[in-house]
Amino acid sequence: MTSVYFVIVSSNDNLIYETNCINMEFDKPDERMNLQQVTAYASMDVIMEKSLSSNQMYLGIVESSNGWLVYAFLTPSNHRFILLNTQLNEESIRSLFIEIFDGFLKVTLNPFYQFNEPITNKEFDIRVKNCLKRFVLK
Known about the structure:
Layout: E1 3-9, E2 15-22, E3 25-26, H1 33-42, H2 44-52, E4 58-65, E5 68-74, E6 80-85, H3 90-108, H4 122-135
Antiparallel strand pairs: 1-2, 1-6, 2-3, 4-5, 5-6
Helix pairs in contact: 3-4
C-alpha cells in the first residue's frame, strides 16, 4: 500500500496546508492520520537543528519514525514543507519540493493572500496532488 502525507507548516508553527494519499486516493479519512500529524510535528525540532547546519532549502531525510521517512524543505520565509513517505526516493522528492515551492510562491505573493493563513487555493491543491502523483506515487 502506497501512502504519502504532505504538510506545510508556517513560520509561526501553524498548519497551513495538508493532504494525504493512500493508494492514489487523496484526502481519504484514515485512522493513521493522527499518527502522521504527530510524526510531522515531532520532526520540526530536528528540521530546525538541521537547518542551522545547512544553507540548503532541501534538507532531505531528517528522520525515520513510525515506519515513515520524513523529508523536509525550508523556505526563505521559514515555512516548512514536510513529507512522510514509506519509500526512499531522494531525487524525486527534491524535484517535488521545488515544484511545490514554485506554486507556493505564486500563492503567497498574491496580494489577497494573508501571510501564514491556511492555503485554500484550489489550483495550488491540484498542483500539489499532481506533483505527488508524478514524483512520489509513480
